[in-house]
């Protein structure tokens, strides 16, 4: 499973890139808004220059014509930009048209396997099932990832990749990997949590203390 960072924060994206584990970025209108009143195009272009992999950014329009106009403009911003289009009839029609033009689509706000089937058949490069938001309403978000992956595997001609999205904690990430999600897009805080383990911290301290006792401050071998 590959890892994307789910944020529009440049500092966090730069750190993720330095860690060498992030192969893409996903944003949405809420995440962009968190950065204040920014120049949207400039921000997306900056993110695209930091991360060589796919950078998803979303349209605001709710009708097909508007989505198409926005998506065609966004697609010109950078080579690695991917346009997020929301699930639904309007979004499905827009996805099919954009895919036909060679524009990569991330079919977002996906909450059912049927929506994921539509994403695949419309030619979306990615589909984003939202795990945490299903958990929020008392459903099992991870079940959607498991079902979706199982269904996609039945049809090898499907090339759409599943991005486990709305990830809220490291356990979501682990479960998405076990279910075979192609990608998990993780918030920065979850990325930091993934690196942490108390036994790693105590292990480092203990090694340092043992070394210090015998070797003193000598660090070079
Ligand atoms: O990638 C989609 C994600 O940003 C949504 O997450 O936490 O707002 O449900 P959340």
Please write out the topology.
Layout: E1 2-6, H1 10-19, E2 24-26, H2 29-33, H3 40-50, E3 55-58, H4 64-74, E4 81-86, H5 89-100, E5 105-110, H6 113-122, E6 126-129, H7 131-136, H8 141-154, E7 161-164, H9 170-179, E8 183-186, H10 188-195, H11 198-215
Parallel strand pairs: 1-2, 1-8, 2-3, 3-4, 4-5, 5-6, 6-7, 7-8
Brief characterization of the structure:
52% of the residues lie in helices and 16% in strands. It has eleven helices and eight strands. The model has no long low-confidence stretch (mean pLDDT 97).
Which structural class do you get from the secondary structure elements?
A: alpha/beta
- Between the first and last Cα atoms, what is the distance in angstroms? 37 Å
The biggest beta sheet reads: 8 strands, parallel, barrel
- What's the Cα radius of gyration? 20 Å
The strands making up the biggest β-sheet line up spatially as 1-2-3-4-5-6-7-8
What's the shape?
globular
Estimate what percentage of residues fall within beta strands: 15-25%
In quaternary terms, these chains amount to single chain
Q: Kindly state the number of beta strands.
A: 8
Approximate helicity band: 40-55%
**How confident is the prediction overall: mean pLDDT?**
97
Ligands, deduplicated: SN-glycerol-3-phosphate
Number of helices: 11
Unreliable residue runs: none
The ordered string of helix (H) and strand (E) elements is: EHEHHEHEHEHEHHEHEHH
């Amino acid at each position: 499973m590959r890892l994307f960072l789910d944020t529009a924060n440049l500092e966090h994206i730069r750190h993720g890139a330095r860690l060498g584990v992030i192969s893409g970025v996903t944003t949405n209108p809420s995440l962009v808004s968190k950065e204040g009143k920014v120049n949207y195009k400039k921000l997306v272009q900056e993110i695209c220059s930091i991360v060589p992999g796919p950078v998803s950014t979303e349209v605001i329009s709710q009708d097909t014509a508007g989505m198409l106009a926005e998506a065609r403009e966004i697609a010109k911003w950078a080579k690695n930009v991917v346009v997020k289009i929301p699930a639904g009839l309007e979004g499905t029609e827009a996805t099919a048209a954009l895919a036909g033009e060679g524009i990569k689509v991330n079919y977002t706000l996906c909450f059912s396997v049927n929506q994921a089937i539509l994403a695949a058949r419309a030619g979306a490069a990615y589909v984003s099932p939202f795990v945490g938001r299903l958990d929020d309403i008392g459903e099992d978000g991870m079940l959607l990832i498991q079902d979706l992956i199982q269904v996609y595997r039945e049809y090898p001609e499907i090339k759409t990749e599943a991005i486990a999205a709305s990830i809220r904690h490291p356990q979501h990430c682990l479960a998405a990997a076990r279910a075979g999600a192609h990608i998990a897009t993780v918030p920065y805080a979850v990325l930091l949590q993934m690196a942490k383990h108390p036994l790693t911290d105590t292990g480092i301290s203990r090694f340092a203390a043992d070394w210090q006792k015998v070797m003193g401050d000598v660090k070079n071998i």
